[in-house]
């Protein structure tokens, strides 16, 4: 079995590769200064915002946020898994790809997975053959034709037939007890039980299983590599359930897959949007009418993993659900799951169809062109859908109604990642309620504190925010995102455009810190400025010996700063190309998105957007000092708060500190 590609080989490959010809062979680049630019191949745009850096050997789009190195570009543009992308890049350079020797346990797991992939693919082929040749195939074909499907679309989606009977697939693929157990592991067979639900008699060498899917139209579920990993079956008769899905298996996790995504990617070089529907037939029917961008969850609510998977392939999602109560509930759950992932540039809309209609029935009535137009005209943006949903039954003309809407909406909006969209959503809530932003922040803080108290009292984790339960513990707000390139007639929205908090009278402040406050200069917050400076000037890592104090921080940006320091300390010989290859493999998706933004943008800009000169070491030490001062102020304030809440329980040194505070306030 093939093992992993060694990290040393990936480092060497990235060091020897040149991303510019890799990209230019697929997207025509134009020289712009020391970089290259083009219109982004991953989203529609008229003004080029896609930049390729030959120095750092990666690409970044200031419009949609797409980023990566040469391997990442091949993965996205050529739609390849990581190993295949590495092999393709290596082949273009005439290099053979080595593989690591696997441990016995790894070999066994890989062999098991490979055998399951082969088994499900054989099952998919068997079901397709049955749709052509079985004696009841005519009934299934008639059903599909009545649903408006052509043979070409049925073939493209690999639709098949599981005949009636208890052991058709078993007799074809499970001819021994060992093979029957493999079918069970793949979710295609069920072990027989007695009347009490216990395993029945088990005679060695004999089968004790029956087919899971019987008398059903079969829809193979494919992963992102096009492999059949599971099935959904629609019954041909009156049996229940109407739709039956494969259970979880070692190769199939329904919360992480979207039906139809592989087919949508094959049909579109660029996915302008994905339409998320509820059923297999909805996806296939829309494809029949020319709408080749529909996907469906697999018998489960749309969760955060589904949202993240979809947003990796497009910037716009449209949830198109039935107009009944079940459809409204599904839309509400999808909204909740999507909020933490609504970065700037992403779009989310909702189209609830008339009650009694679903995408399958409606598209057959009005056609694909009108269905597309319906989405454009009546698909409601996230902001409208959210506020209308929360406002049901609330009279915002009254003070009580505005208060209720604020308490329900503010904690949910706090789940939005930092950025322009978050700011606009809070402005929208402020307009609807008449409350200032400061008051909304107080509501969020109060709800966080209340939930924390409830959690502490019950010794259970805080509940996830839900539209039906306003009391929440939102995820920690992320630091502002770094803006893209360009001129700013006003201060860049995500830079620090105000002075840092002044130190207390007994705190010394250096001339360098004062220099950070010159008018017309805009910098990132200190935490992100440290990351940006380190990416632009890797030699600054030598100024810090220990990265542990940052990796152990509660602040996500300081944790990332510590992670980058650790990589640099452990691999001092890496060049910038190899370094960014390592950094783009960090576990955090947010980190992988932030690193190229910071690395491709200038750390300090003026009021008109011009790049300003700076001394890297001075700025670096300045940021570290700023963090130290902020930590000291917080420590002092915590001591004072402790004294105020707990009485005279502080020591002499702490009481002296309080007296010092009082003198300052006087």
Helix content: 40-55%
Question: How many DSSP E strands?
Answer: 18
Total number of helices: 27
Within the largest sheet, what's the order of strands?
1-2-3-4-5
Instruction: Give me the secondary-structure category.
Output: alpha+beta
For the termini, the CA-CA separation is: 75 Å
The fraction of residues assigned to DSSP E strands is 5-15%
Which residue ranges are poorly predicted, with pLDDT under 50 across at least 5 consecutive positions?
A: 468-518
**Sheet with the most strands, sense and barrel status:** 5 strands, antiparallel
| Global geometry | globular
Average pLDDT reading: 80
The radius of gyration over CA amounts to 29 Å
Give structural notes.
This protein is of the alpha+beta class and 666 residues long. Helix content is 47%, strand content 11%. A five-stranded antiparallel sheet has the order 1-2-3-4-5. A five-stranded mixed sheet has the order 13-12-14-15-16, with helices on both faces. The chain has a four-stranded antiparallel sheet with strand order 6-9-10-11, with helices on one face. β10 (228-235) and β11 form a beta hairpin. α3 (70-77) crosses α4.
In terms of topology, how is this protein built?
Elements: H1 7-16, H2 19-24, E1 30-32, E2 35-38, E3 50-53, E4 58-61, E5 67-68, H3 70-77, H4 82-92, H5 104-133, H6 137-146, H7 151-156, E6 160-162, H8 168-173, H9 177-185, E7 189-191, E8 209-211, E9 216-222, E10 228-235, E11 243-245, H10 261-267, E12 274-277, H11 280-288, E13 294-296, H12 304-311, E14 316-321, H13 325-338, E15 347-352, H14 359-366, H15 368-378, E16 380-381, H16 382-390, H17 399-413, H18 420-433, H19 437-458, H20 511-515, E17 521-523, H21 526-536, H22 548-551, H23 556-570, H24 576-583, H25 589-600, E18 604-606, H26 616-646, H27 652-665
Parallel strand pairs: 12-13, 12-14, 14-15
Antiparallel strand pairs: 1-2, 2-3, 3-4, 4-5, 6-9, 7-8, 9-10, 10-11, 15-16, 17-18
Helix pairs in contact: 1-24, 3-4, 5-6, 11-14, 14-15, 17-18, 17-19, 21-23, 21-26
């Amino acid at each position: 079995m093939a093992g992993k590609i060694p990290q040393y080989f990936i480092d060497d490959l990235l060091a020897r590769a040149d991303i510019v010809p890799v990209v230019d062979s697929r997207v025509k680049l134009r020289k712009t200064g020391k970089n290259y630019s083009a219109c982004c191949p991953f989203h529609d745009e008229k003004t080029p915002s896609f930049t390729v850096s030959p120095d750092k050997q990666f690409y970044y789009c200031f419009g949609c946020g797409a980023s990566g190195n040469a391997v990442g570009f091949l993965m996205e543009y050529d739609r390849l898994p990581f190993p295949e992308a590495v092999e393709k890049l290596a082949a273009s350079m005439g290099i053979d790809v080595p593989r690591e020797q696997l441990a016995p346990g790894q070999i066994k797991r890989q062999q098991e997975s490979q055998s399951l992939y082969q088994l499900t693919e054989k099952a998919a082929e068997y079901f397709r053959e049955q749709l052509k040749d079985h004696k009841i195939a005519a009934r299934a074909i008639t059903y599909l034709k009545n649903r408006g499907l052509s043979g070409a679309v049925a073939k493209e989606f690999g639709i098949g037939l599981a005949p009636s009977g208890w052991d058709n697939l078993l007799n074809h693929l499970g001819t021994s007890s060992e093979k029957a157990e493999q079918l069970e592991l793949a979710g295609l067979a069920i072990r027989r039980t007695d009347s009490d639900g216990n395993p029945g008699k088990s005679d060695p060498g004999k089968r004790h299983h029956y087919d899971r899917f019987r008398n059903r139209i079969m829809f193979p579920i494919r992963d992102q590599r096009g492999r059949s990993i599971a099935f959904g079956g629609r019954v041909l008769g009156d049996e229940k359930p109407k739709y039956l899905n494969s259970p979880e298996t070692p190769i199939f996790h329904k919360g992480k897959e979207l039906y139809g995504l592989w087919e949508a990617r094959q049909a579109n070089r660029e996915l302008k949007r994905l339409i998320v529907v509820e059923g297999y037939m909805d996806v296939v029917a829309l494809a029949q009418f020319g709408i080749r961008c529909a996907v469906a969850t697999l018998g489960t609510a749309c969760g955060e993993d589904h949202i993240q998977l979809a947003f990796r392939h497009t910037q716009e999602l449209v949830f198109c659900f039935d107009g009944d109560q079940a459809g409204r509930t599904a839309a509400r759950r999808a909204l909740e799951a999507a909020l933490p992932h609504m970065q700037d540039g992403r779009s989310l809309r909702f189209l609830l169809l008339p009650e009694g209609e679903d995408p399958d029935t409606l598209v057959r009535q009005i056609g694909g062109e009108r269905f597309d137009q319906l989405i454009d005209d009546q698909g409601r943006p996230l902001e409208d859908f959210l506020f209308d949903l929360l406002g049901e039954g609330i009279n915002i003309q009254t003070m009580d109604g505005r208060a209720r809407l604020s308490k329900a909406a503010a904690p949910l909006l706090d789940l939005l990642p930092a950025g322009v969209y978050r700011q606009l959503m809070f402005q929208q809530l402020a307009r609807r309620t008449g409350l200032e932003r400061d008051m909304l922040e107080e509501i969020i803080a109060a709800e966080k504190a209340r939930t924390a108290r409830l959690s502490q009292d019950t010794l259970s984790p805080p509940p996830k925010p839900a539209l039906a339960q306003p009391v929440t513990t939102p995820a920690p707000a992320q630091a502002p995102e770094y803006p893209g390139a360009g001129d700013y007639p006003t201060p860049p929205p995500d830079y620090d455009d105000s002075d840092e908090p002044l130190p207390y009278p007994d705190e010394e402040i250096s001339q360098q810190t004062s220099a950070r406050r010159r008018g017309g200069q805009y910098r990132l917050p200190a935490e992100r400025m440290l990351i940006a400076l380190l990416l632009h000037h890797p030699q600054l890592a030598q100024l810090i010996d220990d990265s542990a104090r940052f990796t152990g921080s509660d602040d996500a940006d300081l944790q990332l700063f510590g992670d980058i320091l650790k990589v640099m300390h452990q691999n001092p010989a890496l060049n910038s190309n190899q370094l960014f290859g390592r950094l783009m493999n960090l576990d955090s998706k947010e980190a992988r998105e932030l690193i190229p933004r910071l690395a491709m943008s200038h750390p300090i800009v003026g009021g008109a957007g011009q790049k300003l000169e700076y001394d890297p070491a001075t700025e670096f030490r300045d940021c570290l000092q700023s963090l130290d001062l902020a930590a000291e102020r917080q420590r002092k304030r915590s001591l004072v708060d402790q004294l105020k809440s707990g009485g005279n329980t502080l020591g002499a040194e702490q009481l002296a500190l309080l007296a010092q505070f009082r003198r300052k306030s006087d």
